[in-house]
C-alpha cells in the first residue's frame, strides 16, 4: 500500500496530537503526585527525557529513511508501539490522591496513599510520611500530621 503525501500528513498529524496530549498528561500527573520538595526535580527529569527523545528522533529518521525505502513506516511503527505500551501501562498507574481529595473520594485516596507508603523501601526517603498518622475515615488532612498541606501544596 502506497500512501500519498496527504495521507502521510494526516497520520503524522494524528500521531502528533496523541504525543502532544500525552506530554500534557504526563507533566500534570507528575506534578499531582510529587511531594512539594521533589516536584521540580521530577518534572525536570520527565521533561528532559522528552527533549532527549526530540533530539534523537531526527537522527533515527535520517538513518531509517535514507537506508530503507520503508524507513518512514518503521518510525510510525515505533511510535505506535510506544502508544500501545502506554495504553497498557496506564492501567497500573493510580489516580492522583490530590485529585481524589478534591472530588471527595477520601477512602479511595487513603487507599492509594497507603499503597504508596507500603512501597517505599528506602529508609528515610520520605521521613515525613508515617503510617501511624493515617486516620480511619473522613478527613485525610491529618494523614501527614500538620505537614499535609505543605507536602501536597
What is shown here, in short?
The protein is mainly α and 153 residues long. Helices cover 67% and strands 0% of the residues.
Give an overview of the whole structure.
This protein has 153 residues and is mostly helical. It has helices spanning 5-33, 39-67, 71-89, 97-102, 106-119, 148-152. Helix 1 (5-33) packs antiparallel against helix 2 (39-67) and helix 2 runs antiparallel to helix 3 (71-89). It is elongated and about 55 Å long. It starts with a helix and ends with a helix.
The major beta sheet can be summarized as: none
C-alpha end-to-end distance: 53 Å
Provide the low-confidence segments as ranges.
128-149
Average pLDDT for all residues: 75
Which overall shape is indicated by the principal axes computed on the Cα atoms? elongated
Q: Can you give the helix content as a percent range?
A: 55-70%
From the alpha carbons, calculate the radius of gyration and give it in angstroms.
21 Å
Number of strands: 0
Q: Order of helices and strands, N to C? A: HHHHHH
Question: What's the number of helices?
Answer: 6
| SS content category | mainly alpha
Proportion of strand residues? under 5%
What is this structure's SSE topology?
Layout: H1 5-33, H2 39-67, H3 71-89, H4 97-102, H5 106-119, H6 148-152
Properties at a glance:
153 residues, mainly alpha, elongated
Amino acid at each position: 500500500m502506497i500512501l500519498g503525501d496527504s495521507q502521510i500528513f494526516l497520520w503524522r498529524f494524528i500521531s502528533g496530537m496523541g504525543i502532544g496530549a500525552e506530554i500534557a498528561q504526563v507533566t500534570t500527573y507528575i506534578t499531582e503526585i510529587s511531594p512539594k520538595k521533589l516536584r521540580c526535580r521530577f518534572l525536570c527529569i520527565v521533561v528532559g527525557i522528552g527533549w532527549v527523545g526530540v533530539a534523537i528522533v531526527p537522527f533515527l529518521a535520517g538513518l531509517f529513511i535514507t537506508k530503507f525505502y520503508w524507513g518512514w513506516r518503521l518510525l510510525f511503527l515505533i511510535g505506535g508501539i510506544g502508544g500501545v505500551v502506554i495504553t497498557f501501562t496506564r492501567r497500573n498507574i493510580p489516580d492522583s490522591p490530590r485529585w481524589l481529595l478534591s472530588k471527595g473520594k477520601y477512602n479511595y485516596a487513603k487507599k492509594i496513599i497507603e499503597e504508596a507508603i507500603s512501597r517505599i523501601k528506602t529508609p528515610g526517603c520520605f521521613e515525613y510520611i508515617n503510617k501511624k498518622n493515617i486516620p480511619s475515615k473522613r478527613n485525610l488532612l491529618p494523614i501527614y500530621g500538620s505537614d499535609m498541606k505543605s507536602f501536597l501544596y
